[in-house]
Write a structure and sequence with these properties.
The complex is a heterodimer of chains A (about 150) and B (about 350).
Chain A: H1 10-37, E1 46-50, H2 52-55, E2 61-67, E3 70-76, E4 82-86, E5 97-99, E6 104-107, E7 112-115, E8 120-122, E9 131-137, E10 140-144
Antiparallel strand pairs in A: 1-10, 2-3, 3-4, 4-9, 5-6, 6-7, 7-8, 9-10
Chain B: H1 2-12, H2 15-23, E1 25-27, H3 33-56, H4 66-75, H5 80-108, H6 116-138, H7 143-154, H8 163-171, H9 178-210, H10 216-221, E2 227-229, H11 230-255, H12 281-289, E3 293-294, E4 297-298, H13 299-320, H14 330-351
Antiparallel strand pairs in B: 1-2, 3-4
Helix pairs in contact in B: 3-5, 3-11, 4-5, 5-6, 5-11, 6-7, 6-9, 6-13, 12-14
Classes of the chains: A alpha+beta (about 150), B mainly alpha (about 350).
Chain lengths: ~150, ~350
């Protein structure tokens, strides 16, 4: 079928052409701005700690270490093994504390409780504390994400 | 002098504005005090701007210096402690008045046609005011403010797809660090002020465009409401209110200066008894009482969903309650009181 008249005027065609072009240009500028605004950061796959610092820990105590910009806990259990946790509450990201007399982890922000193995037992936390794997290499303690190689 | 006035008028064309202000009337009735809440918010906003600029002369937004520079403002800068105290208290007064302003308008149904856009811009201003409070709370960089910021910036994380990006944007990374502090400072002193001025200009323009709303009963009976000339009568009364508020503010600020805890340690456990500012307490308690799991979703997701729905309801209120002017709107009144009761109860509970 042949249409007698054009469906849009020359003006509206040019308006949308120029408008669309400006929109694309704006979009092009948006990408570097967003790239700049979000800094690159990746959680470490592993951290290396001097074994000497953690060798003499008494049972049922924890020591702090830096897991990237998050705090981590190394915990000596009653039977002498070491456990590693990311010491950040799974509810809303507050740093947790370990209460040795109660044998529990505690988050003061919204009163979340975890048992000595990091399992969430009371309050709002929806998941257990994140566990990290530990291995010993010579004089060093390697703490890494579960499932990573190396 | 006359010549100068004419010269200026030819260039600026401000006469219509002054004629408008001279002719402007403020209705008088039993809810008249609500008109004063709006202008009093401006008083506190002005105080925030002046004291904020003063504080920024000494404050340093870095991980190393933030807490120490606030300590210097409190101890070494002449009158620094009272300027900080005024800034802190005035923010509370401002947010309190914003809430009274909003509740008053909700109860008197002044948001109804044609004032929908005025209401919506007002809800925007409420959100911006709360963001001002939230970003400002971090700046002294002590334990309490660090934990509050960790929680607050983690909340968007619960939203699917975009949430993680929002959290990353707010924090300047995966975690709250020194970068977050610098970012919050820029939000607090640059981004949010630009936003509040832009939206406030729209809000005030719309208030003038539609005129002051009058009570429903008067509208129903087609009564003529008594009116007070804006200039000079209303301005005079308003300045009396400002003087009283200023007096109360200064008294409170002198007697109850805010404290400063030691600098926050990013690796330390959250201190016990953390609390956000009072106007976030009801949200804080809401987050606390939701259990870990409700059916298949986490409690926090449900709590955040409920809060978002309440915000959306507030924003779209004039589009939900579209009944004509003269209808009473008991449901909305009831909802406003229910919300007030809920917020008050949660706040008291969180303080126990």
């Amino acid at each position: 079928m042949k249409i007698k008249y054009s469906l849009f005027t020359r003006r509206s065609f040019l308006n949308s052409l120029v408008g669309g072009w400006l929109a694309v240009l704006g979009g092009v500028f948006l990408s570097p701005i967003l790239k700049f605004v979000f800094p690159p950061y990746r959680e470490p796959d592993q951290v290396t700690l001097p074994l000497a610092d953690f060798k003499d820990m008494a049972p049922n105590t924890v020591k702090n270490f830096a897991w990237g910009s998050k705090p981590g806990f190394l915990k000596r259990t009653e039977d002498g093994t070491l456990q590693a946790f990311v010491a950040v509450c799974t509810h809303l990201d507050c740093n947790v504390a370990y209460l040795p007399d109660k044998k529990k982890f505690f988050c003061a922000c919204h009163e979340g409780w975890y048992d000595e193995n990091g399992a969430n037992i009371a309050g709002p936390p929806p998941a257990p504390l994140r566990r990290l794997e530990i291995s010993v290499e010579g004089e060093n303690l390697i703490v890494k994400k579960p499932g990573t190689k190396g | 002098m006359r010549k100068l006035r004419i010269w200026l008028e030819d260039r600026l064309g401000t006469v219509p504005i002054f004629t408008f202000l001279r002719k402007k009337d403020v209705p008088q009735h039993k809810h008249s005090f609500l008109y004063y809440t709006g202008s009093s918010i401006l008083l506190f906003l002005g105080i925030q701007i002046v004291t904020g600029i003063m504080l920024a002369l000494y404050y340093q937004p870095t991980l190393k210096e933030a807490n120490a520079s606030v300590a210097r403002i409190m101890t070494e800068v002449p009158l620094g402690w009272i300027i900080r105290s005024i800034h802190s208290w005035s923010s509370s007064f401002m947010i309190g008045l914003v809430m009274i302003h909003l509740l008053g308008i909700m109860l008197t149904k002044a948001y109804r046609s044609p004032r929908e856009a005025t209401w919506m811009s007002g809800v925007f201003l409420l959100v911006i005011s709360m963001l001002f409070g939230f970003t400002g709370y971090l700046l002294p960089w002590d334990d309490l403010s660090l934990s509050a910021t960790k929680v607050g910036t983690d909340i968007p994380n619960i939203i699917p797809v975009i949430g993680a990006w929002v959290t990353k944007f707010l924090r300047g990374g995966e975690d709250v660090t020194g970068d977050t502090l610098t970012r919050f400072f820029i939000f607090h002193v640059c981004v949010l002020p630009l936003m509040i001025f832009f939206i406030l200009a729209i809000h005030i323009f719309l208030v003038q465009k539609h005129g002051m709303s009058i009570p429903l009963e008067a509208e129903r009976k087609k009564e003529k409401v008594k009116a007070l000339p804006f200039w000079p009568n209303f301005v005079l009364r308003e300045s009396v209110a400002w003087m009283v508020l200023l007096g109360v503010l200064l008294t409170v600020a002198v007697i109850l200066a805010p404290s400063l805890e030691p600098a926050a340690d990013l690796m330390a456990p959250a201190p016990e008894g953390i609390k956000p500012e009072w106007y976030f307490l009801f949200l804080f308690q809401t987050l606390k009482i939701f259990p870990a799991k409700v059916f298949f979703v986490t409690g926090e997701a449900l709590a955040v969903l409920a809060i978002s729905l309440a915000m959306a309801f507030l924003f779209f209120l004039p589009l939900i309650d579209t009944r004509p002017w003269e209808k009473k709107g008991k449901v909305i009144t009831w909802l406003a009181y229910a919300f007030l009761f809920y917020a008050a109860a949660m706040t008291v509970w969180s303080l126990l």
